[in-house]
Design goal:
The radius of gyration is 14 Å and the shape is elongated. 32% of the residues lie in helices and 0% in strands. The chain has 71 residues and is an all-alpha fold.
Protein backbone atom coordinates (compact mmCIF):
# COMPACT_ATOMS: atom_id res chain seq x y z
CA UNK A 1 0.00 0.00 0.00
CA UNK A 2 2.82 2.44 0.82
CA UNK A 3 4.37 1.71 -2.57
CA UNK A 4 1.08 2.74 -4.22
CA UNK A 5 1.10 6.03 -2.31
CA UNK A 6 4.70 6.68 -3.34
CA UNK A 7 3.83 6.01 -6.98
CA UNK A 8 0.59 8.00 -7.09
CA UNK A 9 1.61 10.88 -4.82
CA UNK A 10 5.42 11.06 -4.58
CA UNK A 11 5.27 14.26 -2.49
CA UNK A 12 3.00 12.72 0.13
CA UNK A 13 4.69 12.09 3.45
CA UNK A 14 3.28 9.21 5.46
CA UNK A 15 4.33 8.17 8.93
CA UNK A 16 3.22 4.80 10.22
CA UNK A 17 2.88 4.28 13.96
CA UNK A 18 2.08 0.70 14.88
CA UNK A 19 0.22 0.68 18.19
CA UNK A 20 0.08 -2.86 19.53
CA UNK A 21 -0.74 -1.95 23.13
CA UNK A 22 -3.60 0.57 23.14
CA UNK A 23 -2.78 1.53 26.71
CA UNK A 24 0.41 3.16 25.37
CA UNK A 25 -1.92 5.96 24.25
CA UNK A 26 -2.85 6.67 27.88
CA UNK A 27 -0.95 9.21 29.92
CA UNK A 28 1.80 7.63 31.99
CA UNK A 29 0.11 8.88 35.16
CA UNK A 30 -3.00 6.85 34.28
CA UNK A 31 -1.46 3.57 33.15
CA UNK A 32 1.92 1.87 33.67
CA UNK A 33 2.34 1.38 29.90
CA UNK A 34 1.34 4.99 29.13
CA UNK A 35 3.38 7.66 27.36
CA UNK A 36 4.61 10.93 28.78
CA UNK A 37 3.07 14.05 27.26
CA UNK A 38 6.35 14.77 25.45
CA UNK A 39 6.54 11.31 23.87
CA UNK A 40 2.86 11.50 22.87
CA UNK A 41 3.44 14.87 21.17
CA UNK A 42 6.50 13.47 19.38
CA UNK A 43 4.42 10.64 17.90
CA UNK A 44 1.24 12.56 17.16
CA UNK A 45 2.20 16.02 15.98
CA UNK A 46 -0.25 18.88 16.44
CA UNK A 47 -2.09 19.77 13.24
CA UNK A 48 -1.08 16.55 11.47
CA UNK A 49 -3.94 14.22 10.55
CA UNK A 50 -3.91 10.75 12.08
CA UNK A 51 -5.54 7.76 10.42
CA UNK A 52 -5.94 4.61 12.47
CA UNK A 53 -6.48 1.26 10.78
CA UNK A 54 -8.35 -0.48 13.53
CA UNK A 55 -10.66 -3.46 13.41
CA UNK A 56 -12.31 -2.77 16.73
CA UNK A 57 -12.94 -0.29 19.52
CA UNK A 58 -12.94 2.93 17.43
CA UNK A 59 -14.52 4.81 20.36
CA UNK A 60 -11.60 3.81 22.58
CA UNK A 61 -9.01 5.06 20.09
CA UNK A 62 -10.92 8.31 19.70
CA UNK A 63 -11.03 8.73 23.48
CA UNK A 64 -7.35 7.91 23.98
CA UNK A 65 -6.03 10.12 21.19
CA UNK A 66 -8.35 13.10 21.15
CA UNK A 67 -8.81 13.52 24.89
CA UNK A 68 -5.06 13.69 25.40
CA UNK A 69 -4.53 17.32 26.35
CA UNK A 70 -0.87 17.71 25.46
CA UNK A 71 -1.20 21.16 23.88
Amino acid sequence: MIAAFKWEAPGLRVRVVNVVDLMRLQDESQHPHGLSAARFRAMFLEGVPVVFACHGYPWLIHRLVYKNDTG
